[in-house]
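Input/output pair, single chain:
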Amino acid sequence: MANKTFQLETLTCPSCAAKIETVLKRMKGVKDVEVLFSSSRTKVSFDEEVTNQDDIKKTIEDLGYDVLGVK
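Output:
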């Protein structure tokens, strides 16, 4: 199990955070998602045998949000 934090470009509204959280929770291999609107961070726990941080980053970017970094 891996835990990564994705730093996003500033989120403009709480519904943006909810949208990201909903889509990521539907991804295979993702176990937990926490989107922090105030700091524009998304914390994701996922099974590395099923998905990876690049797939998660691409999913966020496909929703129209820029990922500035991953820790």
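Residues 11-39 form one domain. Residues 13 and 61 are 17 Å apart (CA to CA).
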